Amino acid sequence: MGKNKNTDSFRTKKHYFFLKLRWNIHHVFNQILSFFEKEEDGILLIPPTHLDGSFGDELMTVTFINQFDENKKITIYESKFLERVDLFGTMHNVSYLKYKYAPKFHKLKGGVYILGADNMTPSYGISFPSFKCRVLKFANKYDIPTGILGFSLNKGIINSELEKDFLELIPNTHFKLREPDSFEVAKTFLPIENIQQVSDLAFLCPYNKNSDEDFLSWVSVKKAESKIIAAICPNSIQAHKVGIEEYVNQFTTTLEEIQNKKNVVFVFLYHDIRGKMNDRDLAEKIYLKLKEKNLDIYFKDNITNGVVLKSYLELVDFTITGRMHFGISGYSLAKPMFGISYEGKFSGLQKLFGVSAENSLISYTKMEDFYLTLERFINNLSEFSINTKENLPKVIALSQKNFEEIK
Hints:
Structural class: alpha/beta
Strand content: 5-15%
Number of helices: 15
Shape: globular
């Protein structure tokens, strides 16, 4: 989510100017080394952002790496170095490289790939996605396979500098759009032979069965009471935009009214633990306000990554989320999603599962619609659950298409 800003601040432009300057010098040094070092079929992987607490980015990265055996060397290319032992500790084929160092392209004959998510649009500025495209341009010069996988586009890219960056990657790079709406935008300016509709990589993310005894016990009691269990994930970016207290009050008012009228209980979770008043802090704040009203709710405060989080969603009936990857984790387990959307991103996802946007989505800028729309969603939950289960194999197959040119 962003302000649809097509320009960056002077500070950001300055940062990327000197970053590219250093990068160019290092690239020349690597070219000299290539005469003395053997070529390798390693892969360079560029996550959406550095892996410091965005669960969605973690899911995409883990999914990609799990497509290969331990003999395939994969380098995670990030702006900051943050070794994630909890995600990749047993994967000895995974290494890290900072943006300020140019990759050794002679050791990356397996390909260079961007995990796009929603970070390849001008909504977040131009310099960051443009820098990633620049890495692909260099890889193309070396005849290395390149692609942007599992990503979204909006119309803001049209006539932007980033559109030019994309066009400079033709004809070598494959563009994998993760839902129908993004694919339609891509068709307006990219050759059809370079684009393909897929679904998000995170649909394929592996996970282990939940072993949290306290949570399992709570779920067991609620199932015995024939309760419908909804997993809640607020979005801290949305909350900061509309005001923390306003956002919290809309959640508490809506959820209290829903539980008073429907057979629904809530478990509060989260999908981003970066910074102050993040999703986890926000979920706890909403939970505590509702606990004062003696609602039937549960909160888990120590989940550390997206893979662990996914195991909690296996045991719920549906999700209520302001984070799309939280909903994707639920959908991958055949759990329908109620979305609090931004930039229209959720509508394409709902189309994939045959879930009516009118009865399943609200905008975070129109939280006054929360209760009535959620009530309609719950009234249609049986139909949405059937549609989700019927469409899931198709969506999984679309996700696998991200890797068609890689394997």
